[in-house]
Design goal:
Elements lengths: L8 H12 L9 E4 L6 H12 L6 E6 L2 H10 L6 E5 L10 E6 L11 H10 L9 H12 E12 L9 H7 L3 E7 L12 E7 L7 E4 L5 E4 L9 H5 L8 E3 H4 E6 L6 H4 E3 L11 E5 L15 E4 L16 H6 L2 H8 L18 H4 L3 E5 L1 E2 L5 E3 L5 E2 L3 E6 L5 H8 L2 H10 L1 E2 L5 E2 L2 H4 L3 E3 L5 H5 L18
Parallel strand pairs: 1-2, 1-4, 2-3, 4-5, 6-8, 13-18
Antiparallel strand pairs: 5-7, 6-7, 8-9, 10-22, 11-19, 12-14, 13-14, 15-17, 15-19, 16-21, 20-21
Length: about 475
C-alpha cells in the first residue's frame, strides 16, 4: 500500500487503550484494521487482551500489499479468530464492525495516477480539492462502523484545517468525535508528521470534543459542523487569546512589494543593465526567487528606480541617462500604456516605493505559496517586487525572533486555516492576513514589551501605525 509507515508499539498501545476504554470487547465482536500492514495493531490488540485477561475478538486485517499480507498471514496462522485479507479496502466495502483501528496511508493527490484520482472522485464524497488518501479511509471506515461502534485512527492533523478536507469534516460532524489527541510531532522518529489520534463513536451527539494538546493541556471544543476549519475553535482568534498580540501590533510595515506597473522596463538581470544606469538600481527579488529549501535571499535581478533614497520621485529634468533609457520607443510605449500615468508622471511607478522603510533588514515571504515560509533580507538593500511581501518590525532586535516564530508549525497551521486558497491548493498571503497572525508575548523581549501598551487585543486594521 502506498504511504505505508510502521506505527511504533508505544503509539499502538496508546490507541488500543482508547479503543477499549469503557468499551470492553467481547469474543464475538468484529474488529477491523483496514490497512493492517504486517500486523502492528493486531499485535497491540493481542497484547491488550493478554494484559487485561480478555479473549481476542474476531479480527479482520486488510491490506493491498501482498508482501505485507504474506507476513501477516504467517504470523497469525495459529489464531482462528484472526483473518488477513489481500484486498483494497477502498474498492470493496466489507461487513460492519464494532471496532476499527488503524494508521491509514498518507498519500497526497500528487502521488496518485489520473485513473486513481477519477475512481476516488466517483466513490467518495471527501474526494475534493487536493485530497489525501487517508480522507477516504476515514469515510470508508465510518461506513463500516456499527451503531455505537468505535473508531480510532492516527492521521496527520491537517484534516482539521485544510480546505481540501472540508467535505471530510462535514462527514465527521455526523458522528460523535469523542477525542482528538495531538501527539508530539516526532512520534514517528525523524519523520515529522504532526499526528492526531482521533476517537469516534457511531452515534449522534452534541457533546464537545476533548482536545488533548501537545503540551498536555486539554480543552472541550465544539467543532464546526459546516466543514470550516476547526483551528479557530481549537486555538481561538487573536482577540480571544490571552497573552497574545498580533504581528501587526509589532511591525512598522507589512506590505506587498513594489509594483512598478512595467517590470519589463524597470526590472532586468544585472548583466543586462547598462553601466551608466547602475546609480539608479537596487537589487530586487521575486516570489520565485525565494525557496523553501534554502535560507538564501538572492537574485540576479535589479530594479531601475527613478526615485531618491527618501522615496521622492526624481524630477524629470534630473534623470539624465535614465531618461534616455526610458524614452527608448519600446520602453516609452509600455510606460504610457499604464493606467497610473493618468495621475502620475509618465515614468513613475504604479505605486510610490516607501524606500526609507524598505531599505533596512526585513522579513520576506511569497504572496502565493503551497507551504508558507519566511526569509530574512540581512543586507537591507533589497527592494522586493510585487510578488513578495515584506515585514519590518518596529524593534529591529525582534527580527530574528519573529522570523523564527513565523516559520513555526503553529504559524503555518494558522495561515493554512486563515489564508485564501488559490488554485491547486496554494495559499494566497495578504497583508490583512499577515497582520492578524497571533504572536505570544512569551517570545518577546521583556524590556521592550514593557514599554508597549497592549491594552486590548485588536485586529491590526484598528492600528493607525500599520502601513501597507
Amino acid at each position: 500500500m502506498k504511504g505505508f509507515v510502521p506505527t511504533p508499539p508505544s503509539i499502538v498501545d496508546h490507541m488500543v487503550a482508547k479503543l477499549f476504554e469503557n468499551n470492553l470487547p467481547d469474543p464475538e465482536d468484529n474488529l477491523l484494521d483496514p490497512g493492517c500492514g504486517r500486523g502492528a495493531f493486531i499485535d497491540g490488540i493481542i497484547r491488550w487482551c493478554e494484559k487485561n485477561n480478555r479473549d481476542v475478538p474476531r479480527i479482520t486485517g486488510i491490506d493491498s500489499d501482498q508482501k505485507h499480507i504474506a507476513i501477516a498471514q504467517k504470523k497469525y496462522s495459529e489464531f482462528p479468530s484472526i483473518e488477513i485479507r489481500h484486498e483494497d479496502f477502498l474498492l470493496r466495502v466489507p461487513e460492519k464492525f464494532n471496532f476499527i483501528i488503524g494508521n491509514p496511508p498518507y498519500v497526497p493527490i500528487t502521488g496518485l495516477t489520473e485513473q486513481e484520482k477519477n475512481v476516488y472522485r466517483t466513490l467518495f464524497q471527501s474526494a475534493t480539492g487536493r485530497f489525501d488518501l487517508y480522507f477516504f479511509f476515514f469515510e470508508q471506515a465510518l461506513n463500516c462502523l456499527e451503531k455505537e461502534g468505535r473508531l480510532v485512527f492516527i492521521t496527520p492533523e491537517k484534516y482539521l484545517s485544510v480546505k481540501s478536507a472540508s467535505q471530510l469534516r462535514i462527514i465527521l460532524s455526523g458522528y460523535n468525535i469523542n477525542e482528538i489527541d495531538l501527539l508530539h510531532e516526532h512520534s514517528f522518529g525523524n519523520l515529522v508528521t504532526y499526528p492526531a489520534v482521533t476517537t469516534i463513536t457511531h452515534k449522534k451527539s452534541n457533546a464537545p470534543t476533548t482536545i488533548i494538546f501537545r503540551d498536555g493541556q486539554t480543552k472541550p471544543v465544539q467543532l464546526p459542523k459546516d466543514g470550516t476549519s476547526a483551528f479557530p475553535a481549537l486555538y481561538g482568534t487573536p482577540r480571544e487569546r490571552a497573552g497574545y498580540c498580533t504581528l501587526g501590533d509589532l511591525c512598522l510595515r507589512i506590505s506587498c512589494g513594489v509594483a512598478t506597473g512595467a517590470d519589463a522596463v524597470f526590472v532586468h538581470k544585472k548583466s543586462e543593465i547598462p553601466s551608466d544606469l547602475k546609480t539608479y538600481v537596487y537589487p530586487t527579488i521575486t516570489g520565485r526567487d525565494l525557496s523553501f529549501n534554502s535560507s538564501k535571499v538572492q537574485s540576479d535581478l535589479e530594479m531601475i528606480t527613478p526615485y531618491e533614497a527618501s522615496g521622492k520621485l526624481i524630477p524629470e529634468s534630473q534623470l539624465g541617462t535614465l531618461k534616455t533609457f526610458l524614452l527608448w520607443p519600446e520602453n516609452h510605449d509600455r510606460l504610457l500604456k499604464r493606467t497610473c500615468t493618468t495621475k502620475k508622471p509618465w515614468y513613475a511607478f504604479h505605486e510610490n516605493p516607501p524606500l526609507t522603510q524598505i531599505l533596512q533588514r526585513k522579513i520576506l515571504c511569497k504572496d502565493i505559496t503551497e507551504t508558507p515560509f519566511f526569509r530574512i533580507d540581512y543586507s537591507g538593500n533589497i527592494v522586493p517586487g510585487h510578488s513578495v511581501y515584506y515585514i519590518i518590525p518596529k524593534n529591529p532586535d525582534l527580527l530574528e525572533t519573529l522570523h523564527n516564530y513565523l516559520n513555526s508549525h503553529e504559524v503555518r497551521l494558522w495561515l493554512e486555516s486563515n489564508c485564501q486558497h488559490a488554485a491547486n491548493g496554494f495559499l494566497r498571503l495578504q497583508s490583512t492576513i499577515l497582520k492578524q497572525i497571533p504572536v505570544p508575548f512569551s517570545i518577546l523581549e521583556n524590556d521592550w514589551l514593557s514599554s508597549q501598551k497592549f491594552t486590548t487585543l485588536h485586529a491590526p486594521e484598528d492600528s493607525a501605525e500599520i502601513a501597507g
